[in-house]
Amino acid sequence: MRLSYDKAFIEKKMAGGMEIMGAACMKMKDRIMIKVGQVWREVDKRVDGRLVEVVEFHDTGLPRNVKIKSLATQRHTWASESRFNGKTSGYELFKDVVGE
């Protein structure tokens, strides 16, 4: 099943408090800190740009320490911090939290 999102849908879901970030900012040397409220896009080509929002983040170093919510289905799940790397099997930053 492929999911796709148009810009109007994203802006409606994420109205207020966020700005769009370019995919070019996701280089390993420019590590972006994971923060509650950020929106990340799944890089996997089998899933057409699934967007998730960070709901909780526990900086413990343990696996699956980031709680995320799918913007399409509103379902919650846990992900490993190492997947937020901009690579094919992970997520890249789509929108950052403004003012933090």
UniProtKB/TrEMBL annotation:
Q: Which domain of life is it from?
A: Bacteria
Protein name according to UniProt: Uncharacterized protein
Which species is the source of this protein?
Answer: Chimaeribacter californicus
